Amino acid sequence: MFCDCVFTWILFSPVGANNYSPFVYGMDKKSYTSITVQEQITIFSPQAGFPVWGKEDVMSKQLVSLVACVVVVLSSCDDSVTKKSNPCINDPCVNGACIVTGESSIRCECEVGFTGWLCDTCAEGYEPDGNGGCEPIVVDPCDPNPCVNGECVVTGETSIQCECDTGYDGLLCDACAEGYEPDGNGACVPIIVNPCNPNPCANGNCVVDGEAFVCDCDEGYTGDLCADCAPGFVQLNNGTCVVDACQNQTCAGHGTCSVDLDTGVAACACDAG
């Protein structure tokens, strides 16, 4: 029979200078069974290789209480406290329940967050909490920041929103916003609007003046956009301005000069007579 690892009190009362009269007390500490000195020596002698724990009784220095957990065959072992050894008696599962699966084998059923043969490590998705336990790993969807050019804002357990920097757009702020263009180095810069492209001047050259423009008109043209004929010029039917051929023509004082708007040639219509 195997004595289980339970507190069995052994009371030794002195009967002589070198002899003891031992009694095996039951778990109720009232019933007892007498054993011989030789049996006591065989069971509890440190030379026999068995663990013995003892302390001096606080009531009398003449009495010694020994608490022993001994695995040994005893002819006088009380059947009420003997049974097969329990491999879970020392509770080897650090964070879980010990389940006996055989005469000397066990299995640990780990608590949530723990794993390992003895439930002594953090399970996947958990990390040490600094106090000997394991806590769920908090997943930050903004770490690392998925927003290429902007700030990541958590909007749900696994959802985010990117607040883009100026000049950027898109779900991940990875595109140029309206009014911006790539600078060739991975950044977006304001599009410089050229007021002279296309040329707004109908008959002249466009000159950029800050964010505005000024038209430098060709000869014969005038106006903000060089769309009118300058003084001394007439506009033909095709829209061009030519020198007014009648401006120095008097028709000898006996007629009226007019310009053919198809050709630009002047002709006098003479007065009667």
Could you characterize what this model shows?
- The chain is mainly β.
- Helices cover 3% and strands 35% of the residues.
- It contains 1 helix and 25 strands.
- The protein has one helix spanning 37-44; strands at residues 9-14, 20-25, 32-34, 53-56, 64-67, 96-100, 106-110, 114-115, 121-122, 126-128, 134-136, 150-154, 160-164, 168-169, 175-176, 180-182, 188-190, 204-209, 212-217, 221-222, 228-229, 233-235, 241-243, 255-259, 266-270.
- The chain has a 5-stranded antiparallel beta sheet with strand order 3-2-1-5-4, with no helix packed on it. A two-stranded antiparallel ribbon has the order 6-7.
- The longest helix has 8 residues, at 37-44.
- The chain is rod-shaped and about 155 Å long.
- The protein starts with 8 loop residues before the first strand and ends with a strand.
- Residues 1-83 have low confidence and may be disordered.
The secondary-structure element order is EEEHEEEEEEEEEEEEEEEEEEEEEE
Task: Report the sheet with the most strands, covering strand number, pairing sense and barrel closure.
Answer: 5 strands, antiparallel
Number of strands: 25
The global form is rod-shaped
> Averaging pLDDT over every residue, what do you get?
76
What is the CA-CA span between the terminal residues? 162 Å
Strand order of the largest sheet: 3-2-1-5-4
